[in-house]
Every structure is written in C-alpha cells, then in structure tokens.
Design brief:
By secondary structure, the protein is an alpha/beta fold. The chain has nine helices and ten strands. α3 crosses α5, α3 packs parallel to α6 and α6 runs parallel beside α7.
Length: 252
C-alpha cells in the first residue's frame, strides 16, 4: 500500500479578518493524482501557496516524506522534491523551447550559475537524451527551435509542464493547467499528463472539472477555506454540501 508523501495537518491562514484556509487536513500518497476543486475564493490557491512555501501557515504543519517543511522556503521545497506550476505560464519567452528545457535541466543537475550557461555552454546540452526525450514526450519536437513568445497558450502550457517534469520533482503541483485553453489544447495537455500516471505524484487545482474526470483518482472540494468533501469523483460531486456550495443546487 502506498504511503503518504505530502501531508498538511490542521493548516490555517488568515489575511486580516479573512480566514482564507481554515483548519485543512490533506494527504496525498506516492504516485497518486488528486484534484482540488472549489469556486473562486474557496481558498485553493492560498492552500497551494502554503504547500509550496510562498506563504507560511498561521496554524498547523506541512510535511514532505515525513519531514517537516512548514517553515522551509519555496526554493528549499523545490530542492526537497516539490515543484509547482502557476496559473500564468512561467517560461523564458525570449528563448527558444529547447533553451527553456536546458535551463531547467542545468539548474537541476549542475551547481554553476544559469548566467554562465546562457553565455557559454547551453548548446552542448541540445542532444542530451533527457532533453530530447522530454521534447518528444510533450509533443514539442516540431517546436524545439521556436521562440517561446511565438507559441500558442496551449503549446506554452505544455512547455511549462515539461519544464516542471524535467526537474524530476517527487510531487508536482499544477495550478489550473487547463486555464484559458481551447478544447484541442486541453486534449494535448491531458495527453501528456496521462503519460505520468503511476510514475509521479500529482496534485492539481482545476475549474474545468469535467475534463479531469478520468485523470484524477481522488478529489478534495473546498469552500470558504474549508474542506467540505473528499473522496471519489462522483461521490464528491454529488455530496449535498458540494451541490449547495459549488453547483448552487439545493439538496432535496
């Protein structure tokens, strides 16, 4: 049986009088794929920020592989194996697709500065097996020489996820990876994500919940900073509190 790799225990976060996250308990097992659902203002992104070290909780604790990471910085958590993508793509738009991947690979595997890589050695990594494999896995081979600023949003999203995966985190947190994408682009992103089922622990926030029905193994639903349901996809969506708070449907 898989063991928990990432856990939050009684985590809370206030902004003035607003309790954005209210006593949340959360656990994800190794290689499990969990979705976090909730309407705007439910506390999902704040909770993500707590997991990844952008915010520290006012109460509670967070652990990764049994180690307390509650007060670790975001950079320290990345070094421990926890990587997060953002709602807005975080790529280097003035570089081409391959250079973006090389930068991530270099940072993950070398101690020299990224500036030195940009100035001298990045082309020596162009035929690196991991770079080439990542380009192929994420359907980026035909785009490998294209400057990122000329990519579509869907192509850029695939690149951002590829960069996160190439860093080889043990836990990958995806913040609305399908936001702003057309249906065809959504299919492309999900296609590459499905290749990591059973190989990587993934936690994702997503509004377009119908698209990830066959992707996530478990859901956690938040409302006003609290967890109101947790479990299987159908069970959560039919939970009376979820119907009332998220779907605005009154239970019989």
């Amino acid at each position: 049986m898989s063991k928990a790799i990432l856990q939050a225990h009684g985590v809370s976060k206030k902004f003035g009088s607003l309790k954005a996250v209210n006593n949340v308990n959360f656990s994800v097992n190794e290689f499990e794929i969990v979705g976090i659902l909730g309407s705007n203002g439910a506390g999902k992104t704040t909770f993500f920020n707590l997991l990844t070290g952008l915010f520290f909780p006012d109460e509670g604790s967070i652990s990764l592989k049994g180690e307390d990471i509650t007060r670790m910085t975001a950079q320290e958590r990345v070094a421990k194996g926890l990587t997060r993508t953002f709602q807005l793509t975080s790529t280097f738009d003035n570089l081409n697709v391959t250079d973006n991947l090389v930068l991530v690979y270099f940072r993950a595997n070398h101690q020299t500065s990224a500036k030195e890589l940009l100035l001298t050695t990045r082309k020596s990594f162009y035929n690196n097996p991991k770079i080439l494999s990542t380009l192929e896995t994420f359907n980026l081979l035909e785009l490998k020489d294209r400057q990122v600023q000329h990519l579509s949003l869907g192509e850029k999203r695939r690149l951002e996820i590829a960069m996160a995966v190439l860093a080889e985190p043990e836990v990958l947190l995806l913040d609305e990876p399908l936001a702003g994408l057309a249906d065809s682009e959504i299919r492309g992103v999900l296609e590459v994500l499905r290749r990591h089922i059973g190989k990587q622990t993934i936690v994702l926030v997503e509004h377009k919940i119908s698209h990830i029905e066959k992707f996530v193994e478990r859901l956690m639903v938040m409302h006003e900073g609290r967890v109101i349901a947790e479990g299987g996809y159908e069970d959560c969506l039919n939970h009376p509190e979820v119907r009332r708070s998220y779907w605005q449907i009154e239970a019989d």
